Amino acid sequence: MSAACRRLLSVLAIASTMVLLIAPGANAHAGLVGVDPEDGSQLEALPSQVTFTFNEDMREPAFASVVVDGRPVSLPAGDPTIDGENVIVDLAGVTTEGRDWTVSYRVVSADGHTVEGSTNFTIPSAEVNDDPIAADSEEDGGVWSSPWLWVAIVLVLAVAAMLLVRGRRAPSSRDAA
Ligand SMILES: [Cu+2]
Fold first, then answer.
1. Cα 112 to middle of ligand 1, angstroms
2. Which of 21, 18, 23, 60 is closest to 160 using CA atoms?
3. Residue 22 needs a FRET pair 20 to 30 A away by CA distance; which of 49, 110, 122, 152 works?
4. How far is the C-alpha of 167 from the C-alpha of 161, rounded, in Å?
5. How close is the Cα of 66 to the center of ligand 1, in Å?
């Protein structure tokens, strides 16, 4: 095996390790300590916001998606707001009605790991939402499920790792061509 080939293999190994470390859900060190309204709540009406509280400060980027009765809901207020340990999903402006709500989040913790999860509440008095499912149902968080995003990340990391390996070897130049 040539030196260049070995170097390429080590670069790929480093890159794939880094991808595993940052991939969503691979390693969730920050813990969720509370949700308001509480997971499993039965409510009279849609709350104006859902607040996820963690055991450490959180940071952007933060994404949220909302599903009611199995149908995606668009969030007029956009991405969640981060306030220290709180990640706040603003539901003001949501006009969709329905009974069984799931609010999911994906956010970055202070140590740089991605943390994700969801909470559920029901509005027993509401009509079940049986609207046809919109074609663009992938809009929230869809980019994270795209394989091309991860391919791009692997390429960027591979280039970065290669530059690092080169930089470290430059002074000795023992395998210069
Ligand atoms: Cu962590």
1. 6
2. 18
3. 49
4. 10
5. 25
User: In angstroms, what is the span from residue 22 Cα to ligand 1's centroid?
Assistant: 9
Distance 109 CA to ligand 1 centre (A): 7
Residue 75 sits in a domain whose CATH number is 2.60.40.1220
Longest dimension (CA), the chain: 75
| 97 Cβ neighbours under 8 A, 6+ residues apart | 46, 68, 126, 127, 129
Q: How many domains does the chain have?
A: 2
Q: In terms of domains, do 37 and 120 share one?
A: yes
The parent domain of residue 1 ranges over: 1-26+146-177
CA–centroid distance, residue 31 to ligand 1 (Å): 9
One domain for residues 121 and 69: yes
Q: What is the pLDDT of residues 92-148, one digit of tens each?
A: 999 999 999 999 999 999 888 899 999 999 999 999 988 877 665 555 555 667 777
pTM of the model: 0.60
Same domain, 72 and 105: yes
Shared domain check, 91 and 177: no
- Taking the centre of ligand 1 as the mean of its atom positions, its distance from the CA of residue 27, in whole angstroms, is 6
